[in-house]
Every structure is written in structure tokens, then in C-alpha cells.
Amino acid sequence: MALSLSNFLVCLIALLPKGLPSAIAATVTHDFNVGWVRGNPDGMAERSVIGINGQWPLPLLNFTKGDRVIINLHNKLGNQSTSAHFHGLYQNGTNDMDGPVGVTQCDVPPGHSMTYNFTVDQPGTYWYHSHTRGQYPDGWRGQFIIHDPENPFRGQFDEEMAFTVSDWYHDEMPGLLTDFISHKNPTGAEPVPNSALMNDTQNFTVAVEPGKTYFFRLTNIGAFAGQYFWIEGHRMRIIEVDGVYTQPAETDMIYLTTAQRYGFLVTMKENSSSNFAMVSSMDESLFDVVPPTLNPNVTGWLMYDASAPKPVASPIEAFHPFDDFSLVPEDGLELFDHVDYSFNLDLKMDNLGDGANYAFFNDVTYVTPVVPTLYSVLTTGDKASEAAVYGAYTNSYVLNKGDIVEIVLNNDDGGKHPFHLHGHNFQTVYRAPAGSGFYNASDDHSFPAAPMRRDTLMVNPNGNFAIRFRADNPGESAPSAQNPSALLMNEQESGSSTATSTGTWPLALLQP
Ligand SMILES: [Cu+2]
């Protein structure tokens, strides 16, 4: 994929512990001229897509832990506002760089610019995308990799490579959204994608060498569809989920909700002159109606021999993906067994007086506040610690810095839904099977000793989950040279945390 971004480096010497490879923390600057270009990734329908600097697919961005990232966003769309979010980055101390419109910033109108400036202190597989309404599936999304000089699996692979899977629509989002949240769609049926993509194409190939071990980083950058992923004739050894290293776990198949990432090692066969299919298959259980013409699968290939044929993928009988709940973090961080603050979010889908279908937490459907939540934190003085100042339709909870917070999510809907927490990863302490109903704290739950941590998690249909995290990322920061847009200083050790979700139609795209 061509990189036509103007990069320049301002180098700083980083002090590294003895014995590690020397590295320098750099300042990496990208100019993002966001504008419309033409694209036809599935070969079935050319359409307008949102590109950067005249190009689409968007560039794979590579950084090294410790780098300062400066992204000069210039909105050249002409007809739509925009924003940029860096999914999974904590933005601890730079909360105003997080991107969600109405939470940490206002939209960037056409013809205007915004500079995102932050340090990447966490290694792993992330992605970047517009956080303006449902804009990103029009193409405005790509992978964001932070390389780790101290990767604990460093000696166990020869090369690393990042690629994506996604769903794809032939129609543009503004029209799809209008039809989706409409009295004409009272059941809230989500738009069904037209096809699936692997690395924004349907002809993706990876040149591999026999015997080598590769570290693949896979991200579901789609709008809606979860994806089953497998590689014929090869096993995957999972070592990372959502930026968190895991104890190695072997599997033949993984399932990625939208916005989830997996890092896994794959060792090539010692002798092979044939090529092998890599398949991603959209989770059709999410679709209310499956059009007869829809091909839910997309195939890519591990290419041992470029002159050999690319085999058609074999059909499979059933999907048996790896259960991510069984993962153990590589650092062994133990269960937060003392909870300071716990609250429930009860999810349901229901209709309002306009006849359209909305998603609700605790009987409230989110309405983007006119004043972004972070600005309210900074301007309401003593009242900043009262949840009510953030608006009656935001489901705000004010957390105390340092507390261990538990969120119980009860799914009163018959669909699967992924949830994403900004600014933290969380321990997944409990996840009920489909049909379990609401979480009952007085039941005898046995929690994992060292729960998996990640930033995006799926709740099962009519199921529930409980997650725990340390509230160590206050949603405010002092003005500084790196952070000139924080206008007011607030010394209180509390911040607002707005429960939002991403990547799932009913939850991310709530407009009145
Ligand atoms: Cu995010």
C-alpha cells in the first residue's frame, strides 16, 4: 500500500535500560488531507470513498513505543465534518486528543483543520478512524501499529505484518444512516453489507518463506459484521489482543468483533510449493435478512510460490472460534478483587415516539451534547463532579481517580453487541452465555485469577458481562506545550467517563 504522507523526524535520544536494542523516540508527523476519492475494493461497484492525501486504502501507520505523533488533520471533504480517533490509545494526559465528537472535541467542519499531538507509550495493534457519526465505514479507517523494542515474544518470530478485515457497503453512510434510524425501519434492522474485504481488497496475498514464523496483526475495521478468521493448513498462536500481550494460546480460528485486534504467530511449513487460503467470514447471525446474492466470505492467500495457483477455500461445516475469555495476560496481572464502585448498564433496543428504533442504557438513549463532555469538565468548576452537568441523555458517571470500577452490562436484546471502553483496557471478569439474562451479583461467580484484558468485548444475546478497570485516566489535563487546547486547569482528581460504544450500528449511531 502506497504511503504518500509527508513524514519528518525530529529525533530525541531515549534512555533505555541496558541490554535492550537501542532505539530513538521520534516525533512522527503526518499531514492528513481528508477528502473524497474513488474506490472499488470488491470489484463490484465503484463509489466515492474517504481517502487521505488523494489515496485510498488508507496508509498503515507504524510507530515505535515512546514516539510523539503529530497528525495535522485538514478537512477537505467539502460536504461533511470530521474528526480522528486512535482506537485503544489511552491518551492519558492528552484526553483532548481522543477524538470522539461531543465527548472530547467538536467536529472539524469542512475547510478547517485540527492537530492531534500525543505520545504513544503503549505497544500493540490499534487503528485510527473518524469518530464523527457513522462516517468511518465510508473508508476513513486504517491500522495504527506501535512497535515494541521490548516485545516479550521478540525472539520467536522472523517478520511481522499487519492487515485488516472488514465489511463493505456500496452505498454511502449518510443515506444508510437515515434509512436505518427511521420509522420505516421500526425493528432497527442494521444495513447488511454488500461484501467482505481483507486488507481493503479481495485479492490479498502475503508472500511467505518456508519455515519462517510470522507475527500477524489483524484488525476488524468494519462497521458492523463480526468476522471469523482462519488459515487453511496452519495454526495460529495468539500472543496479543487489543494491545495486551497474552500467554500464547493455539487455535485454528478466531472471531473478531468490529474494532477488536488479534496478534498471532504462524509458522510456515518447512516444504511447500502450494499456497494456502486465509478466509474471513462475516457473522451472518447479525444480519436480519441475508440477501441471496451476498458472499459473506473473503479469501486471501499465504503465497509460498507466486507462480502456483491460489486455491479456492474449502467450505467448513461450522464455526468453532477460540474463546477469548480463556486468555491470560502475559504479565499475569491478577484480578482486581476489591471493587470501589460498581454500576450496571442495562441495554435494550426500543422505539421512541418518532417510530424509529434506538439503543438504550438504563432507559436513556445517548444524545450528543452540544457542549462536549470534556469542555463541561473544564468549565463547570465545583459542579464538574456532578454527573448531571453532562446532560440527561449521556449516561455519565463521575469516577474517582485510582478507584477500581466495575461495569456490569446486561443485554436485554437478542443480538450480539461489541462494547469498547476508551482510555483504558479492562479485565473481563465474567461473561455469561447467550440467554442467561441479567447478571446477579449474589450468584457464586468464580472469576479468573488473572483475567484477560482488552478494550473491546462482545456481550452475548440476552447475556451479560462484568468488567473491571482502574480509573487511572482522568478526563482533564493541565494546559501545556503539548496540549495547548486544554483551556482551563482543574485540579480535582476526578473525571467524567462517558459510556459509549463503537463499531456496532445500534450503539454507535444514535441520533435523535
Ligand atoms: Cu476507541
TrEMBL record:
GO biological process terms, semicolon-separated: cellular response to iron ion starvation; reductive iron assimilation
CC per GO annotation: high-affinity iron permease complex
Question: Gene3D superfamilies, alphabetically?
Answer: Cupredoxins - blue copper proteins
Q: Where is the composition biased (Low complexity)?
A: 494-504
Disordered: where is this region?
489-512
Signal peptide residue numbers: 1-25
Q: What is this protein called?
A: Laccase
**Species annotation:** Saxophila tyrrhenica
Its lineage reads:
Eukaryota, Fungi, Dikarya, Ascomycota, Pezizomycotina
